[in-house]
Amino acid sequence: MKRVKKELPVEMVNISKNFGRVQALKNVSCMVDYGEVLGLLGDNGAGKSTLIKILVGLYPQDKGEIYFEGKRVQFSSPQEARAMGIETVYQDLALVELMSISRNFFLGREPTKKVGPFEFLDKRGMDEVCAKALSEIGITIRSPDESVSLLSGGERQSISIGRAIHFGVKLLILDEPTAALSIKEARKVLDYVREAKKRGLSVIFITHNIYHVYPVADRFTILDHGIKVGDFDKKDVTSEDIVNIISKGEAT
Predict the structure, then answer these.
(1) How many angstroms separate the CA atoms of 107 and 42, rounded?
(2) Domains (ranges, CATH) in the chain?
(3) What are the pLDDT tens digits along the chain (252 aa)?
(4) What is the reported pTM?
(5) From CA 37, how far away is CA 16, in angstroms rounded?
(6) Using a CB cutoff of 8 Å and minimum separation of 24, what contacts does 129-134 make?
(7) Which of 16, 123, 140, 186 could form a disulfide with 178 if both were Cys (CB 3.0 to 4.6 A apart)?
(8) Contacts of 198 by beta carbon, 8 Å cutoff, 6+ apart
């Protein structure tokens, strides 16, 4: 009988991955529901980034299955995953520093206009849409023409999240989005995560620090040396419980 999967944005089933003799992941299952924020937790080397890189097509898994909106998939590249509605925001690689905010906002989706036989970027339109879209979700910028190199870490994260919300991404993956931010900037980023959830986006928030994700998460998946050691609803665990689980490397 054909296996029927519940239609979730993403479900990864029994994912395993080896790099030579090193087993990075062993039979890890992970899922996220619509409008849910999943905290993907574990110390450095736990396998969090490897799991996500498999999901978006950077690495092939050695074993296991990936389902996207109920259908089995195997992305061959991050671009293919993005085309299907999965956006990943990396801590250091979210934006192109030498480009303006609006150019980054439309990166890969640039609108154009024709002047005679020639086609040009619609720079004015990009600036207007970018400023309006960010303003609608509470992100204030000085000018859409400002270079990203002049932005703080929190501002860069907010632009990336705002871009994902505007273009209707279905699953937003945030890789350590608050790791290098001040307390004030981290709080702003968490506000944008709440806004994404309110708009129906599913979010995977990767971090090694439970205190960075606990305020916004609905559920937690905990990895340790490539093995899943815990999967909890927020109502069932405190942040201190999760710290203890990560420290011990086993579910209690």
Answers:
(1) 32
(2) 10-92+204-248 (3.40.50.300)
(3) 444 455 788 999 999 999 999 999 999 999 999 999 999 999 988 999 999 999 999 999 999 999 999 899 999 999 899 989 999 988 666 688 889 999 999 988 888 888 888 888 899 999 999 999 899 888 888 899 999 999 888 888 888 888 888 888 899 999 988 888 888 888 888 998 998 999 889 999 999 999 999 999 999 999 999 999 999 999 999 999 999 998 876 544
(4) 0.88
(5) 24
(6) 129/102, 129/105, 130/101, 130/102, 130/105, 130/106, 131/102, 133/105, 133/162, 133/166, 134/105, 134/158, 134/159, 134/162, 134/166
(7) 186
(8) none
Contact 26, 85 (CB under 8 A): no
